[in-house]
Amino acid sequence: MRPLRACLGAAAAVTLTAAGTTAFVAGSASGAATALDNRWYAAAPYLMPLDNDPPDPAAIMDATGLKAFQLAFVLAPNGGGCTPTWGGTAPVSSDTAVQSAIDTIRSKGGDVSVSIGGYGGTKLGQVCSDAASTAAAYQQVITKYGLHAIDFDLEEPEYENTAAIRNEIGAAKILQQNNPGLYVSVTTAGTADGTGWFGKQMLLEAKSQGFTPNNFSIMPFDGGFNGAASQTGALTNFNSILQSTFGWDQATAYAHEGFSGMNGRSDTGEYFTQADFQTVLDYATGHHMDRFTFWSLNRDRQCSPPDNGGRTSGTCSSVTQNPWDFAKYSVKFAGVTPPTTPPTPTPTPTPTSCKTAWSSSAVYTAGNEVSYAKHNWKAKWWTQNEVPGASEWGPWQDEGAC
């Protein structure tokens, strides 16, 4: 997914094993809603609650019937350490903003899953000393929010790090054991043949540890894809990989397989329309797959102009659409019919004021914001004299028109 860091020692393994279940129950008792059906957690689209002009989840729920949200992303602190933060900057331990959003969602009968990792940033599996300390960090998140579901988004650069993936898979297994009923998804990169070499190594690591999540999901975008046919082809190929890796038959593999798409224009300029989502949804339900989600609700609204000047944005889709068109496919996957006469659509966000103009001579570090070409941009890492928007994979994240 594209977001457009003192670990515990070995003794933590004993403490976590003994206290993990209790922590989950206590977290649930202190404010979590009753768990939703697993189908809802499997259908939860990604939402960045602190960045990319977060939409109002209550408005989305009213307009679409959506009940579950996949909140992103939990990372290690930017300054180092083995404690969970939102986006590397906001400690989970002192958070109130995300908690407020969760409270709003639960007050309307919904619930959330939390996604850890994503594309970019430092992941906890990279900096924590072992699987037990990694799991202990994530247990803080589960307990804080009384979670019933969690997503491990394992991709670049973390999934190229063997030790980090061993920590993440090991942590996922510990959390699954210590939090009975916890819905666990594992999301990784998609390629035309299903997933790449690093994705296959991750599956082998899971097999070697005896870990089976609710699903392994691939993201068939940003890899030379062109519409729904290329995506369903990748899902078919990934099913074969799951069969050969775990010794499952086809039906069992589909029951542990998930799809995670990108609505509208992808980072590499691919386009996925509402019709593409319907085709993949039909494939997913027809094959009894376990998950159907997408990146992201922050982007599930029309840009101004609709094509956003041929650019990819973190705050709109760059295709013609009504607000929350793509969320309705998740609702359908959960087995619910979206409202036919939704409330008045939430308008496209009013452009915000422009930040200080970008300077070619200035040095910028992660989190610095500038304006350029009537858009605001946020630095993903240290940069100097790199024009915002010049490269899809450059150091600047488009925060929308200003």
Concise overview:
This protein is of the alpha/beta class. Helix content is 34%, strand content 18%.
Average pLDDT confidence is 89
Q: Share of helix among residues?
A: 25-40%
How far apart, in Å, are the first and last alpha carbons? Answer: 25 Å
What structural class do the secondary elements suggest?
Answer: alpha/beta
Rg result: 20 Å
Largest sheet geometry:
10 strands, mixed
Order of helices and strands: HHEHEEEHEHHEHEHEHHEEEHEHEEEEE
How many DSSP E strands? 17
Q: Strand percentage, roughly?
A: 15-25%
Descriptive account of the structure:
This protein is α/β, with parallel strands linked by helices and 402 residues long. The protein is 34% helix and 18% strand. The strands form four sheets. Strands 1, 2, 3, 4, 5, 6, 7, 8, 9 and 12 form a ten-stranded mixed sheet that branches. The model is unreliable at 3-31 (pLDDT under 50).
List keywords for this structure.
12 helices; 402 residues; alpha/beta; globular; disordered N terminus; three-stranded antiparallel sheet; 18% strand; ten-stranded mixed sheet
Helix and strand topology:
Elements: H1 11-29, H2 38-42, E1 46-47, H3 57-64, E2 68-75, E3 85-86, E4 90-91, H4 97-107, E5 111-117, H5 124-127, H6 131-145, E6 149-153, H7 162-178, E7 183-189, H8 197-209, E8 215-219, H9 228-246, H10 250-255, E9 257-262, E10 264-265, E11 271-272, H11 274-286, E12 291-295, H12 327-333, E13 363-364, E14 369-372, E15 375-379, E16 383-384, E17 396-401
Parallel strand pairs: 1-2, 2-5, 5-6, 6-7, 7-8, 8-9, 9-12
Antiparallel strand pairs: 2-3, 3-4, 10-11, 13-16, 14-15, 15-17
